[in-house]
């Protein structure tokens, strides 16, 4: 069942087993199938330097090789997206804007200005920002913070997050599925 690791290896064109994020994500999908992909995506939401653009196509590739079904891939990755988003929503609600900015400034590969721009976008567009933000790299995770800080009603947040995440996840999972080992 080293199919997913083969896809990750193809990313680097290196005959050695993949390391880094691609190897880690491939290992989770290989070992745990859909729940592993969901866990990786939940972590990607909480720690934005982890790229869904690697995890989701690897999950699609695994589905193309029979490791899991497309339905399972989409269910688990969308569930992971929502769980991760709700964690950030909760952190934003509990700690508020100032503490979130202090925490965000310490994360590698994340700019504090990204959080400011996301807050401004949320202030202008409200609920639309949640739905559309789930389909925009960087904003995908960050959009949960102002929603929590502003205490957007949780059922509305979860519904919009689920819909936006399902669209994003479907595009990238299906890309990995259709492209197979060509990506």
UniProtKB/TrEMBL annotation:
Subcellular location: Cell membrane
Domain of life: Bacteria
Main subcellular location of this protein, as a coarse class: membrane
Membrane topology category: Multi-pass membrane protein
Listed transmembrane segments: 73-96, 156-179
Domain spans labelled VTT: 50-177
Pfam families in alphabetical order: VTT_dom
InterPro entries per UniProt: DedA_domain (IPR051311), VTT_dom (IPR032816)
Keywords for the protein's UniProt record, in alphabetical order: Cell membrane, Membrane, Transmembrane, Transmembrane helix
GO cellular component: plasma membrane
Keyword Ribonucleoprotein: no
Family that this chain belongs to: Belongs to the DedA family.
Name this protein carries in UniProt: DedA family protein
Organism annotation: Streptomyces sp. SID7499
């Amino acid at each position: 069942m080293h199919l997913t690791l083969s896809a990750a290896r193809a990313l680097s064109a290196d005959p050695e087993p993949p390391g880094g994020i691609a190897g880690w994500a491939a290992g989770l999908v290989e070992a745990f199938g859909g729940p592993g992909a969901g866990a990786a995506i939940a972590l990607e939401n909480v720690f934005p330097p982890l790229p869904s653009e690697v995890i989701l196509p690897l999950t699609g590739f695994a589905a193309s090789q029979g490791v899991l079904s497309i339905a399972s891939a989409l269910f688990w990755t969308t569930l992971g997206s929502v769980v991760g988003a709700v964690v950030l929503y909760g952190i934003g609600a509990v700690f508020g804007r100032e503490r979130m900015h202090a925490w965000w400034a310490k994360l590698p590969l994340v700019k504090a200005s990204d959080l400011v721009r996301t807050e401004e976008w949320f202030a202008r567009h409200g609920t639309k920002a949640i739905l559309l933000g789930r389909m925009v790299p960087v904003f995908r995770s960050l959009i949960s913070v102002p929603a929590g800080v502003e205490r957007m009603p949780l059922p509305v947040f979860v519904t919009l997050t689920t819909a936006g995440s399902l669209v994003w996840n479907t595009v990238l999972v299906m890309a990995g599925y259709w492209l197979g080992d060509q990506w």
